[in-house]
Each structure stands twice: as C-alpha cells, then as structure tokens.
Specification:
Alpha-D-Glucose-1,6-Bisphosphate, Chain A, domain 4, alpha+beta, two-stranded antiparallel sheet, globular
C-alpha cells in the first residue's frame, strides 16, 4: 500500500499552487468582491451568500494552466475545495482570536486535530504543529508542521496563507513503538496541504472563507475499495469540519463574553 512522492508529481502540484495563488492575489483586491463567492455571477452569488447563513457553502474548484488545460499530477491527485460560513454577531477581532489560538486548536477542531502547539510567533507569522487523525475505512495519523502568515488589509478584511512544511505519517500511533515513516515514502494519504483563508466583517457578522488544496497519491488498481473513500472524501469533509468548528467556536466565545458586533 506504500507510495512514493515522485518529483514530477510535486512539480505539477507546485505549478498548480503558483497559478492558483496568482488568481487569489487578484481577487482580494477587487472593489466590493473580496470573497471568492462575492465574485460569482448572479444568481449564484446570492445563492452562495445565503447558503453561508443556513449551512456551509462548498464548491469543488479546479485551476487550469495558461492555455486553459487541466493541470494533472502524475501518480497523484490534487484536491481543491472552497467553503464559506457566516458567523452572525461576530467581529473580525473575535474570529482572528480563535483561529490564531493555536495551542487550543486541539479542543476547537477535535477529533481531527489530536494535538496542537504554537511553536513560534513573530508578528503576523506563526509556526505551528498539529497531530492530525483522519478516519475513513482506515485511520491515518500524521505529524505536521505549518507556516501561517496573516495579511491584515483594513479594519474589516484580513486573509491568511497556511502551508504545510512537513507531513510525516505515523506508524503504530500512540503505541510504545510508534514511529514516523520516511517523508514522501509512506501510504501517500497526504503529501502536501495549503489553505487560504479570507475574513470579512460585514452584514453584522463575519464571513469566513477557506480554500484548501492538497496532494495525495492516486488510486491504485485493486485497492480502490480502501484508498478511494479516503483520498476522495476526506478533503471535503475536513474542510466542512474546519468551517463548522470555527463558527461553533466563535459563537461559543461570544456567548461566554456577551460581546458581539454592533447591531
């Protein structure tokens, strides 16, 4: 069941990221359309914004190259999702307080985040550690390190970029003989992971939008029954959990403090 991260697979992912980040950099400077969903054509735009209030908006994305062709990762799969929620009564400050409280993410984003730790903080730059546990037919435990940079734009807008700088699969997790598998020579359930957050305080609350891009192994012949559910459904389910837990966590903090955005 092992898989190796090949140079051509990583090159394709890096190219995909480069093109995607160029698109994001343009979008966040649009007047009146900071969020991805705010740039959608009507009526999809109104429908998307409405869905953030009642549920979680989710959409699968794909980034083509300059010629409009799909960027494929040989021997791998690129998973690209965007999701958004609205947190009524919240302020941008309250949302950032929660998402930057990395030592407590193991409480906010459990059970997927098993352990979390802030390693280093310098201004708008954060280095963090997560132990992640993902379950779908099989259970995979990962030790991961991330570099996160926040880009405050004004009093009501902020965005961030999170890049996993190290992802190591843990064999025999939580057992006396647990060990990390060689990076890039493991089961291939998560080789790379980037996420791009946008926060907008508006309409007496805060919109939180997250774009997640990850790289996994492809689906091998004969093991599809075991591999496919994991690599195809986990990226979406993980993003849904992240957005839902963010909203629940902020709402719980507002209730405790009794302080929300002005009505």
């Amino acid at each position: 069941m092992s898989a190796d991260l090949e140079p051509q697979t990583l090159e394709a992912f890096n190219r995909y990221i480069h093109v995607t980040e160029a698109r994001i950099d343009k979008e966040v400077t649009r007047p009146g359309a900071f969020l991805y969903i705010e740039g959608l054509p009507e009526p999809k735009r109104s429908q998307a914004l409405a869905s953030t209030r009642n549920d979680i908006y989710m959409e699968r994305l794909g980034t083509p190259d300059a010629n409009g062709s799909t960027i494929e990762a040989p021997d791998g799969l690129i998973h690209h999702w965007i999701g958004a929620v609205f947190i009524p009564g919240a302020t941008l400050h309250q949302v950032l307080d929660l998402v930057q409280n990395y030592d407590h993410h193991q409480d906010i984003y459990k059970p997927e985040v098993v352990r979390s730790k802030l390693i280093r903080h310098d201004g708008n730059n954060y280095q963090i550690f997560y132990r992640l546990r993902k379950k779908k037919v099989i259970t995979v435990t990962l030790n991961t390190n991330h570099d996160v940079v926040y880009y405050p734009m004004d009093a009501t807008h902020c965005r961030s970029r999170s890049v996993a700088t190290r992802i190591a699969e843990v064999a025999d997790a939580d057992q006396p003989g647990e060990r990390e598998k060689p990076i890039g020579k493991d089961s291939g359930f998560l080789w790379r992971m980037n996420s791009y957050w946008r926060f907008e305080e508006k309409d007496r609350g805060v919109y939180v939008e997250v774009e997640s891009i990850s790289l996994t192994r492809d689906i091998p012949t004969g093991l599809g029954w075991m591999i496919r559910p994991f690599v195809t459904s986990i990226p979406r389910e993980s993003l849904v959990m992240t957005l839902g837990s963010t909203r629940s966590g902020v709402e719980a903090n507002i209730q405790k403090s009794g302080v929300g955005s002005p009505k």
